[in-house]
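Colleagues,

Please find the record for the four-part complex below.
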Amino acid sequence: MTLTNNSKRRKELVSIAARLFCEQGYERTTVRMLADAMGIKSGSLFHHFNDKQEILCAVIQDGMESALEIADQALEGEADPKRRFMALAKAHLSTLLNDRNAHVVALYEWRSLTDSSLGVLIDMRDRYEQLWQQVIDDCAAVGLLHGDQPLIRRFALGALNWTVQWYDAGGEKTPDDLAQALGELIGLS
Amino acid sequence: MTLTNNSKRRKELVSIAARLFCEQGYERTTVRMLADAMGIKSGSLFHHFNDKQEILCAVIQDGMESALEIADQALEGEADPKRRFMALAKAHLSTLLNDRNAHVVALYEWRSLTDSSLGVLIDMRDRYEQLWQQVIDDCAAVGLLHGDQPLIRRFALGALNWTVQWYDAGGEKTPDDLAQALGELIGLS
DNA sequence: CCAAAAACCAAGCAAGCGCTAGATTTAATA
DNA sequence: TATTAAATCTAGCGCTTGCTTGGTTTTTGG
């Protein structure tokens, strides 16, 4: 048993756990359900993770890492404030809806984390929000947005995160369409 | 033991349950914790409710009922589309943040409901969303809002519901301030 | 003031929970 | 092929869970 193992097998297991946690919630998902879905016995799970809560932490961490990566990537080489906002919004919806399981878990199950796990994740969340804040501040600086800027960030992220509640991946709208619509709604089209 | 009892005592118990469910989540809250907080023994709980899940259902139902009441009340006698939108937004934030426990539970714990409980609650949610849709459609009809109208409803409700994640009741901003800010953000100030 | 109903308690059951320990199999390395 | 390490299984422990049962206290209404 190793600590914070990053093997490929572990990544697979985390992805399966994300699906179950997303579908039924962390607390309702038992280690036996997880093990079944992974094709192993429940005891074997604890070779890869020290305890159940560490699986939850891994799910959320994986989701946040990819969100940060994609956001950084989207902003790279983009200078115009309006285009930066749209790029960030598109990136956000893209991860949120493609890597949906992990993000639903991150949004809904963080209360089940212990304080020690929370520390790392809060840092990542803060970095991510700061990315957004910077982009919104830049828009405000050139007169594209008006009003309390942290509040705008919260409204925007709220609107975007809520999409996991209703978005139908089989529908006609793409994540980019949604980002476009949000831009238009707040006068940034 | 009665079915769907509506006694005053039951209302108290539901309100206490709302607090615990909000603080720690439904699944992590045991019937013993509930009973302790209510000042009774765990067995006595099942005199008022048939099972634990019925408590959750009651919490959410109470929250939705008061939300619907307050929304109806806010729209009464208001004709101007823009003013109707603002009234609805203010009403929404007012219930959401005053009756916070129940609404956090409604937003975060509905997955723990059984199908039979879900039916009633989904009806109420649909009625509530239709209220919003009508107001937004009216705004669009007079040219105050542009774009996909159901999408606007979802963005708006997402932004508003997300406030439970960060709003500080002891802060300087009132729910009405927030509604005002949202109105300005989408060009409805 | 007394009977009926409502609210509650004491005790505990059966099932399921997270997790552990030790043995065994599979895979990697030299 | 021999040695080691990683991954899995078997079996189950100790505890908590939601809930039940049968009896007691409290409240209510005529």
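Residues 2, 7, 9, 40-41, 43-44, 47-48 of chain B lie near DNA strand C (CB under 10 Å from a C1').

Comments are welcome before we finalize the supplementary table.
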